[in-house]
Amino acid sequence: MAVTKVNSAVQFVSRLTGSHESVANGHWVPTTDVYATDTGLVVKVELAGMRSENLEITVEGSRLRISGNRPDGCRAPKCSFLVMEINYGPFECVLELPQGYDLNQAKAAYLNGFLRIDVPRIPVPHSKTTKVQVN
Q1: pLDDT of 4 strictly over 70
Q2: pLDDT 10s digits, 62-71
Q3: How far apart are CA 19 and CA 50, in angstroms?
Q4: DSSP3 helix / strand / coil % (the chain, rounded to 5)
Q5: Are 43 and 116 within 8 A, CB to CB?
Q6: β-strand partners of 41
């Protein structure tokens, strides 16, 4: 499977619009890779510690919305952090995908802390050669 550079048309909408609002509401945005292959786009989201039933993926036109809630149930109630880099609580990632991909045929799998969404290319119809009669 060959990998090609992703068109700059892929936009992280949640990082461009509403990001200040999301942070104020305690939301965070997971780290995400988006890359193109010969057959379509792959969206890979790092979500360690999640359960697949706590993830929600929705399609709105050409937007792919990934949201959920990563619980923080593994630390002591009265602890004092020296370093805290792991985000907990509600999250959302919204991607505006470029034309040419069929989000309605997307397939998702969650394995080893990574959510992978495969979005196939829309097949380009082959042009037929037809003869036109001259009268």
Answers
A1: no
A2: 999 999 999 8
A3: 22
A4: 10, 40, 50
A5: yes
A6: 36, 119
Provide DSSP, 14-56. Answer: HHHSSHHHHHHTT-B---EEEEEESSEEEEEEE-TT--GGGEE
Shortest CA distance to 54 belongs to which of 119, 118, 113, 117? 113
Q: Are 123 and 39 in contact (CB under 8 A)?
A: no
Over the range 8-42, which residues count as b (16 or more CB within 10 Å of their CB) and which as e?
eebbebbeeeeeeebeeeebbbbebebebeeebbb
**Nearest of 10, 16, 106, 13 to residue 57 by alpha carbon:** 106
Q: How many residues would you count in the chain?
A: 135
Question: Which uninterrupted H or E stretch holds 13?
Answer: helix 13-16
Q: What is the Cα–Cα distance from 13 to 19, expressed in whole angstroms? A: 9
pTM summary value:
0.75
Residue-level pLDDT at 24: 44
* Tokens 């969404």 -> residue: 117
Residue for token pair 């990632």: 93
pLDDT band at 39 (very low <50, low <70, confident <90, very high): very high
